[in-house]
Design brief:
Structural class: alpha+beta
Radius of gyration: 21 Å
Oligomer: single chain
Number of strands: 4
Helix content: 55-70%
Strand content: 5-15%
Length: 179
Amino acid sequence: MAEPSTIARPYAEAVFRLADAQGKLADWSAMLANLSAVAADGRMRTAAGDPNLPAARVAGLFISILAGKLTGDAENFVRLLAENGRLDVVSEIKTQYEALKNEREGVVEAEIHTAFEMDAAQVADLVARLEKKTGRKVKARVSVDKSLIGGVKLVIGDKVIDGSARAQLGALENALKAG
């Protein structure tokens, strides 16, 4: 069976081309986020996977739940996904769409894991330094991870910068074992 990312790619690219051509990248981000939230609900997953429920009925459920939050194009997209049995990859479609959108807008997403809460000024300072270093606008998500002991661990795309005390202690331990 194909990977969800492989299945989702053509849908994400098609939605991105449509949204870009219409100048509605942000609108489609919101609609895909809403669709992803509905698709993640256990009852909707059950309905979407029920072979006795017609695709049109499943699509109708999604569309009725999101009444007023979807454009005509988005409703057609839901129908297409339902007909092809692909509502289970909406979350992956959203993820890939966001990556394409970020690339177009010159944005890079960064996960900032800290040992302690950071105030808004500290986050803004770190984001500004990351933007200077990457040459792109940085959209940051901050989370607290007490297991880091101290410091910060950054994940930007496929790059990890681990300045945490835990990582430094691990490096020291390996150096002592090797020496």
